[in-house]
Design goal:
Elements (H helix, E strand, L loop, with lengths): L16 E3 L10 E3 L5 H11 L5 H6 L5 E6 L5 H8 L7 E6 L2 E8 L9
Antiparallel strand pairs: 1-2, 3-5, 4-5
């Protein structure tokens, strides 16, 4: 992303405009970035994939969706009704600073086991 001889260096501009349409603060604006040619990106990355660590490869895979809802939150009963009847390994709770959270794990379409 920063090497001058990268075949995709143009995908990562060092400066860019921010569309402030109706916004007052820069962080509210929309970054105007160049469109990325998917084929070029995948070709450039194919060279680097063999050099990734196992941890980097794991981060590039589809993972589990996780929803956190405090027991005191108004949405908690909704999630408990949806997922509370599932196996205990899929729904659990934990407490932190006197707040109990419902932890719901759902499977992504491409996964069949937990990692």
């Amino acid at each position: 992303m920063v090497e001058e001889d990268s075949p995709i260096i143009d995908f990562y501009p060092s400066t860019f405009e921010i569309d402030m349409n109706g916004k007052k603060m820069a962080w509210q604006g929309v970054a105007l970035l160049p469109f990325i040619n998917e084929k070029r990106l995948l070709e450039a990355m194919a060279i680097e994939y063999p050099n990734l660590t196992e941890d980097e490869k794991r981060r590039n895979r589809w993972g589990n969706n996780v929803i956190y809802a405090a027991v005191d939150n108004h949405i908690y009963p909704f999630y408990e009704a949806l997922y509370g009847k599932r196996k205990s390994q899929e729904v659990s709770s934990f407490s932190h600073q006197n707040i109990t959270y419902l932890l719901i794990r759902t499977f992504s379409p491409s996964l069949s086991t937990w990692h």
